[in-house]
Amino acid sequence: EVQLVESGGGLVQPGGSLRLSCAASGFTFSSYEMNWVRQAPGKGLEWVSYISSSGSTIYYADSVKGRFTISRDNAKNSLYLQMNSLRAEDTAVYYCARAPNNDYGDYWGQGTLVTVSS
Amino acid sequence: EIVLTQSPATLSLSPGERATLSCRASQSVSSYLAWYQQKPGQAPRLLIYDASNRATGIPARFSGSGSGTDFTLTISSLEPEDFAVYYCQQRSNWPLWTFGQGTKVEIK
To answer: Confidence band (pLDDT; 50, 70, 90) for B78?
Structure first.
């Protein structure tokens, strides 16, 4: 069974940092592209970042470029999102999503809530 | 940037009725369009990919159609568990994904 489990969310002050993790199981993690997608409270879905299966190709939404860093450890079947210089508008549930050929997200984690507030 | 516009924002229907949801792209996305269902407190669930292909385990009452700029998600006969928010998503400008703003299907 494919499973994606996010962790690392929490309450952080503006300007602070957090590192999110996504633990994958039930499939060959190293064969799949992955994405982070977020959802602000009561709002729609917003794509955040993409990483290729090898980790060699990375893209970011303009809203997080220069502040967030996506990475993966295929030996540990894990995906990460390092978030620095956090702002109130980064408050959201963050989901990791498996993306066959990066066309769409066929499996999603349950999400982890990040709250940026003083 | 390709913008996806979903309509209506809210659809009020009764169980057993047919639901027709629309997603319009600001420029052609070919058939690179997916539909998701999201229930409160849950992650999005893939329903349809490549405009008209049902994802694994999705009931036949869900169908997708369209290409280019106009797409439709149809639920042929609403079941109680189908009341949720539905999003369309495109990946035409790979690798970026963009989503529509969502359509809420609520019980009338």
So the answer is: very high
